Amino acid sequence: MPQAPRYFDLNGRSMDSADKSEKRSVSRHPVEFCGLEQAASQATHLAVCTVPPPAGSLEVDQTSALDFPSFSRLTMEEGQQLRLSALEPDHHARDNHNGIEKYKYELLQSPSHIRILELEPGDRAVPLRCSLVQVDLQDRPQLEALSYAWGDAGDLKIIECDGKELKITRSLHEALESLRHSNDSRRLWADAICINQKDLPERGSQVQLMARIYSEALRVLLWLGKYDQHVIDTAFGFLNLFSFDQFIRTPLQFDQDTEEALRSLFTRPVFGRGWIIQEVALARSVEVCWGSGRLDLPILEAAFSKANDELYGIAHKYSATKDYLNLSSISSIRFQQQNDERMEPVELIERFLDFHFTDERDRIYGILALRLLANEQWPNSTFVQIDYTISKWDTFKSFTEACLVREGNLETLLYTHSWDTTLEDQLSWACDWTHPNTD
């Protein structure tokens, strides 16, 4: 016989049926979910609901994570755990209190189709509005590709897309606000919006197209984020001197403001993001965008060439050596890519070690396009298939096998002794490509 349901308020306190009938199960303040985990451990069946306040009660606080107009029922079968982070408000919840429907992705028309973000013009006082249109890469569409750090996946903002509600990270929202034109629309490609991230097969096929997207884009916009405008102006003002490099004489002298501004530049989170290497290395043209500041990437590269010792010294002084080396590594890999220099797969993996990937499978997938353009006789589709439905370990095994069998490079076996080989099935020849074994 089914067990009678037990009721808990939104702080996890047990309620009897009388409490429920009086509909006084919630607080006016933003909902505290921590108690629900305790409640979930006490009940074999759990229903979480919000109810309207009694007549004559105080006005509802609309900042609650689940507001009073919502009557959604979240049920849990016996033995399951309640994952609060995965809960999304229904159509009537707070995020949709204005009645706007949530955006739903349409299937792509063909394997060569992508979505382009058409960003409507406006100033900062106007909410972001855009549309997503499908285009065929075979038609070589005109677009600018965005390279940026995703930021906190839980820190979301809402924009209007095709008249519907779409959530994006605060980092991307700030980028679009800054990059939006005042009077003309702008055609952009940004992975978080233009790829349906919840559709794993689509995600895999679209990642395989990223090499074409970034190499054929009119330019790549490298977004560094928002920052103090004085710091941006100071850093870019100094670097712009290298556009007139006939006036540059080393060693250079730096005041404290310039040193601190350059340190702030070196430590921007985007320079530690793994995908930036492919996105920048493949680009025909790159514009560095920091707040409202703009700088052509070749000027930054000229600074590395002309004043590397001085810039490295500043990074070392401010404990930003690793960040500086990441930034200079991006520049050097771009140079190698543009000059068709051969790069071995394992060499590229080593160059990626200090870069961050949210998904460790991308340590492999992120180098395939670089390898493709450096060795066009070996298309990446015959090397390792991009597939987000398989595990990280299976991806690493496939990559190790490809290096051994398809490349015929037995030197890869040397890395089974210098990398962590503790994979699930203990294959002696397979490598964990996330970090070297320091034993």
From TrEMBL:
Residues 16-26 have a biased composition (Basic and acidic residues). Residues 144-279 form the Heterokaryon incompatibility domain. InterPro entries: HET, HetReg/Transcr_Mod. It comes from the Eukaryota. Residues 1-26 are annotated as: Disordered. PANTHER family: ANKYRIN REPEAT DOMAIN-CONTAINING PROTEIN 39 HOMOLOG-RELATED, HETEROKARYON INCOMPATIBILITY DOMAIN-CONTAINING PROTEIN. This is Heterokaryon incompatibility domain-containing protein.
